[in-house]
Amino acid sequence: xxxxxxxxxxxxxxxxxxxxxxxxxxxxxxxxxxxxxxxxxxxxxxxxxxxxxxxxxxxxxxxxxxxxxxxxxxxxxxxxxxxxxxxxxxxxxxxxxxxxxxxxxxxxxxxxxxxxxxxxxxxxxxxxxxxxxxxxxxxxxxxxxxxxxxxxxxxxxxxxxxxxxxxxxxxxxxxxxxxxxxxxxxxxxxxxxxxxxxxxxxxxxxxxxxxxxxxxxxxxxxxxxxxxxxxxxxxxxxxxxxxxxxxxxxxxxxxxxxxxxxxxxxxxxxxxxxxxxxxxxxxxxxxxxxxxxxxxxxxxxxxxxxxxxxxxxxxxxxxxxxxxxxxxxxxxxxxxxxxxxxxxxxxxxxxxxxxxxxxxxxxxxxxxxxxxxxxxxxxxxxxxxxxxxxxxxxxxxxxxxxxxxxxxxxxxxxxxxxxxxxxxxxxxxxxxxxxxxxxxxxxxxxxxxxxxxxxxxxxxxxxxxxxxxxxxxxxxxxxxxxxxxxxxxxxxxxxxxxxxxxxxxxxxxxxxxxxxxxxxxxxxxxxxxxxxxxxxxxxxxxxxxxxxxxxxxxxxxxxxxxxxxxxxxxxxxxxxxxxxxxxxxxxxxxxxxxxxx
Length: 597
Prior knowledge:
- By secondary structure, the protein is an alpha+beta fold.
- It has helices at residues 8-24, 41-50, 56-68, 75-91, 95-108, 112-128, 132-145, 152-168, 172-183, 193-205, 214-225, 229-245, 249-266, 269-286, 289-302, 310-325, 329-386, 391-428, 438-454, 469-476, 478-493, 519-535, 556-559, 563-579, and strands at residues 459-466, 501-506, 509-515, 538-540, 543-545, 549-555, 585-590, 593-596.
- The model is unreliable at 1-37 and 364-375 (pLDDT under 50).
């Protein structure tokens, strides 16, 4: 958790509060000329642990007091103090300093329940430092140790950590199950806030929550009553994101305004970034472009250098849309390039924990198969000994087993080859339309352009955008929109040559690289495609869905063979086609002129 640094007046107040707590609170009372007295150390340690989220300042003060009397603590209490020190490092964001103490507690404390709580904290640290494979291995160990735990508190923390981790890996059903198990294991000093939130988080990740869902209303009510401001704010941010998804920006903005004082007070970095990003989206949906730009730029300003985040991705998308709307092509292109970087990194970040989870599961499965294989080999040896007197029958049996083994190997190799081909296609093709995805289109275009430059060949780049496509999604639903996209791809393929590159750039935007194609020929092809799209409406569920397209063209004859420059000129031409009325082809003719078709 990131905490802001206060000014002089803040530290003065903190010093006064600290003095009040130390010298007036019974738990901190001291005697003149002696070490501070804390009563029952075990109870004091337990009370201190419960403060780590609710009142971090008091938690830190109690830790300092415990260190002053640490020589008088028993070995078991020393281990508990070491665990609390590691929690403090984690709360300060110093995960590296917390990792080794937590492992020491797990391996050497001898306390099963304390080791379980340390494992839960370590699991969070490993996730925060992107060490996903190690995190999932630890999660498997924690699952196996669950029946050995005696205290409800350690079981509660273990179940919570497992729910959070499985939700992070996309295993939402298992995450939901562990959250429900938490409800039956709530310790005396806890409330239903944490399990309710983890259940809501799993349902949200599985796209099973709506703004009106009772689960979300319950977690907000429960956590508010439990005085858990950070968790309450997180639940409210889920609610505002659902309002945005449901196109209710006014309600989303109302929620964001309501929790803004809490977010600013706690200075929890993910909440600050999320609230600014959502505020930008809400203003953009309301048409308040200036407010949207201000919030989006504030989100980008507080981001850490090199950070990849879904929040930054959304903020950059808002700035890109507004720049295009205002006709600022340079800013639009700049924001679009930053958006592409965030979009690629964000999608990678989503897939990495899932892949790590699957890797660990595959290793566990492999170990199990190896054990089963050894067991089978032992049974085969026993069988061979029993049939030693029947040499002929044994030979026949050996041949049969060999054929089965060879058949199994062949089938396994075929299945492996099929999987490799399928994964290769998934990595290069758009899942909806089957054409090249954005990244592979860019990579393959750069390769082809380099080849053409070496042999002095030419090519033309087409940037195509469907006109008013959002109205189809809003009026007829996303299923109709998906059907239109597939239909448009089929129409375009009828007018392209086998060697041309055709890719989906995102949403309703497409790119086409026509190889060995001069500008005038590219204009003719683009206009044939435009006319074919306009003249071939799609019949979908009894409705005729008519679509038109705007096309911008850039040619290597004018722009050279650098893909980035071709993209800029094609995008500028597309922007002019949109601005001048849509359903047209505009080609950059160089030297400030354009060709309208």
